[in-house]
Predict the 3D structure of the following.
Amino acid sequence: MKTLWIALIGLVIGQVALAQDCQNTLSGQVIDFHTGEPLVNAVVYFRESGKFSYTDDAGEFEIKNLCTGKKQVEVTHPQCEKIQKNISIVEGDNSENFRLEHHLEELNTVKISGKKGNQNTTATAQEASLTQETLESYSSKNLGDALEEVSGVSTLKTGNSIVKPIIQGFHSSRVMMVNHGVQMQDQEWGMEHAPNIDINSIGKLSVVKGAAALEYGGSAVGGAVIADAPNIPLKDSLFGKTIGSGSSNGRGGSLSTSLTKSYQNGWYGRVQGTLKKFGDRRAPDYALSNTGNTEQDFSLQVGLDKFGYGFDAYYSLYNSEIGILRPSHIGNAGDLVTAINSQEPNFISDFSYDLNPPRQDLQHHLAKIEGYKRFSGFGKLTAQYSFQQNERLEFDIRRGDDKDKPAVDLELTTHQFKTVFNVDERNYYSLKFGLQAGFQNNFADPDTGVRRLIPDYDQTDFGGFVSGDYQFNDNWQAEAGFRLDYRHLDSKKFYLINRWERLGYDQGFSDLIIDEVNSQYLTNPVFDFTTPSATAGVNYSWNKKYSLKLNYSLAGRPPNPAELFSDGLHHSSATIEFGDLRIDPEYSHKVTLGFQRKAKDWQFDITPYVNSVKDFINIEPTGLLTTIRGAFPVWEFKQIDAFLAGIDIDARYKFDEDFQFNTQFSYVYGQNTTKAKPLINMPPANWKNTLGYKNAHWNNFNLSLSGNWTFRQTRYPDNNFTFESIQNGQNTVQLVDISTPPDAYFLMDFNAGIEFRSFSTGSLQVNLNVNNILNTNYRNYLNRQRYYADELGRNFNLQFIFNY
């Protein structure tokens, strides 16, 4: 009976097969999505019937004896992502072409290792990147500290925890911070306002030295710092990473963890969080009171990464509380002189984790949604909306009912929209153009009981750019771009009448007055600024090792609200700052020449540059002002013409597979050409050398010893002033030396690490870092608290990185 049933089933199947038309043919071509070039040896495969064909030298294929009906076809090619498509086979000859993205599989391999698969931001200007491995070594520190790994980048500090980058002499509003494709808006105008970015949320950090990153904005006179998200592989996977560290100096540590889930169909998600807590730091000979900090960060990312379309949604919360060195807040001019002339702080307390005034409380929310669509044979369209809210609280030393009330309370809300079209499906050239729009509101809470440093304002921005590059041949490449930005600034601000008249505003700005309240004018300053930016350059390479880059960039930057409106005590820096309504946009003309050698044995990058800035917006100390809060240095914004020149040198030599030597040198010359004197806060010359060893056969054991020589800054403006005081019943005139830079210093650091792979799906890395091995006493010219205390002493940091 069983044999009979089998015979009957076989008879039925045979009759169906005879009845179905299976004499049809499918032919076509498999080509590269970007260039349209044919792909050889691609496989076109019908899984249901098992029929397949390879493409020939023209990318063409033909498959015969196909049955009619809807079929699923699978197309694969080495170094490409497999695609599946449903097609209908009709009677006779059928035709279908398939497009694959060539090299996509290679890109995914790079993404897994944490490096970018895409090209650099610019082909002819200076650009340097830090890999995820380098960023991980700074997990317990901050973004500014990590950026010092790049030659030509130094830092402006307010103590140890408030660190912001200086690129070839420029900082604050002249350095654009881009986080996950969004231009940061976090009150960057302040010299003690550090970037609100968690370094553990970054996969790659790039520094563009100059105004070549036109896509992100035109005001980057100094350059742009671009923090990219960690890249996620297009395959079914679940992986995570936890980084824990403990430090001796500050008796604290950090913990950061992330978990990523991805699918081969393109869907992905990632969640990440960071906790940091440190107590008072210590100089070699004494404690630095009230210098601890805490940080709690969180980020969430979800999206779809298809070749033809996709989206990315991202949210991050940065929450930080930072103590400010207690001795930096002085009560009168005499205390200021004593603090500057003393070798030790005038206030030293026992170690504590408490964060007392003066301190900063910061919270920054960033949310974005971005989508893209590829158009076959043309390019890629991207649209992005982002929202940011930054709240900054600065607490001064106050008594009575106001002791827990902030002296500065600023809330900055920003909406931004941008769209970019990238024409990249061409063999020899690419073209990119886009539009941007933004709206920003700043609210300065009047309930602080203190005169508001920055007023309420609304700011509207519009911008557009176009850029492109052309590959003439294997040796020559050129790029150029242009950008135009428009800004409308509408503010409401109170001015003391006597100050309004002393500044001469009654002559040129009387139409701004809308009301008079007691001894103050209520004014409504409204400004419109239009600023162009441009870049052009060439890149010549030869022998597959050497290249020569020449780039010119023009950057136009409108004044920020602080430069226009500052009017009062900036508590976190213990200075009084005054803006000027007469300030106009500044324009930078920069030329760089880069000579590079890239090879396995040794490589170098030598880049001299010159930069002429018209109407440079400069802030310098101009004297001392005594208020009911105490005596404070006065800093004022003025416009001058400036000239900067310098050189950055990077070199690496590999003795063999295990040993290598790295050296970096940078120098900046800054001159106020209007008054024929040096510019203030120019980084001194710096020379860093590192000898490293790594053995892949010993569990990736590695160690390195670094020596960093910071020269004394010999070019500085003389902003010293005198004040009169009564000592022993007599009038005494004393000099307040706030100009003379500290001496040169030499620091040594040690790093060692090893990796264990005792389990199949992960690894454990153990790293030891020792900073300032010799426990050297020194003061940093670019630390605004150098008048009051030494820098940090020796620090041991033990780190564990668990990949799973």
Remarks:
- Residues 226-803 form a domain with the Maltoporin; Chain A fold (CATH 2.40.170.20).
- DSSP finds eight helices and 44 strands in the chain.
- Residues 13 and 19 are 10 Å apart (CA to CA).
